[in-house]
Automatic annotation (TrEMBL):
This protein's UniProt keywords: Hydrolase, Magnesium, Metal-binding
Protein name: Uridine diphosphate glucose pyrophosphatase NUDT22-like isoform X2
Classification lineage: Eukaryota, Metazoa, Chordata, Cephalochordata, Leptocardii
Annotated InterPro entries: NUDIX_hydrolase-like_dom_sf, NUDT22/NUDT9-like
Organism in which the protein naturally occurs: Branchiostoma floridae (Florida lancelet)
Cofactor: Mg(2+)
GO molecular function: hydrolase activity; metal ion binding
Length: 257
């Protein structure tokens, strides 16, 4: 369990173990390499479904959030439709397949994080057989960083973020469509480019959030995908990354054995 207080004295979100669930566990202690992971990307097939009665609430909710937190800004995010391990490669090894579309942060705040989330999940189950069909489901990334002396690197979240302000967390963030657009030179994304961004984004988050140079980090390996009940089942793709030193860490970093 973790809890926190924001600077204005309001209590932040408290998380318990039961608040999290697994979309997928790779079942490998050291994770799976990128060569065992596939992406099927489609803006058309894997975007969220629209529920007309709640769409006006998304715009109103976003304006309210911006008034309360002027630092908020909208941006495109990847959306996870589903993930499984049903396919195998030529050697009989299981392959992880992500089905990914696009969403944005505004829709996340107005669906997953809104008072309508429960209704949208119920309607998704009834009409689509998928509780997340009408939700934004942006793809987060997170990393379990293991140092050379077997410590786990944790960090303290900023006090102004909308989820878990001030709480202890692993380094993470989001895979970014804008980075894929740079690689592809257009908005027509390839499956391989989206896959590359999934794995590379977690290294960039570690570099930017806790000041570890990329040269000190191993290639990320996929552990699995978890979901958070308190944010409508929002998915986070979790990786294990090995770290060869401990000399570059920022002061707010905590090491756990």
């Amino acid at each position: 369990m973790t809890s926190s207080s924001t600077p204005n004295g309001t209590k932040g979100t408290t998380y318990y173990e039961d608040d999290f669930f697994m979309f997928l566990s790779c079942g490998a202690r050291d994770g799976l390499p990128k060569s065992r992971v596939r992406v099927d990307f489609s803006k058309e097939k894997y975007g969220r479904k629209v529920e007309p009665s709640t769409e006006p609430n998304i715009a109103r909710s976003w304006e309210d959030h911006k008034r309360n937190n002027p630092r908020l800004f909208n941006g495109s995010k990847f959306r996870m439709q589903s993930v499984d391990m049903l396919e195998k490669d030529g050697e009989g090894n299981n392959l992880v397949t992500f089905r990914i579309g696009l969403t944005d942060y505004r829709d996340f705040m107005g669906t997953n994080m809104s008072r309508d989330a429960g209704y949208l999940m119920q309607k998704g189950r009834q009409s689509c057989g998928d509780p997340h069909a009408y939700l934004s489901q942006p793809v987060g990334v997170g990393s379990m960083i293991i140092t050379s002396d077997d410590q786990v690197v944790m960090m303290r979240r900023s006090s102004w973020v909308s989820e878990g302000p001030g709480q202890l967390d692993r380094p993470g963030g989001h895979a970014e469509p804008k980075e894929v657009a740079k690689r592809c030179g257009s908005d027509e994304f390839t499956n391989d480019a989206v896959l590359d961004e999934l794995f590379e984004s977690v290294i960039c988050e570690i570099r930017d959030e806790i000041n570890i140079p990329e040269s000190f980090l191993s290639e990320p390996r996929l552990l699995g995908v978890n979901g958070n009940h308190k944010s409508g089942g929002r998915p986070s793709v979790e990786f294990i990354v090995r770290y060869a030193s401990s000399v570059h860490l920022k002061p707010n970093i905590i090491l756990l054995r």
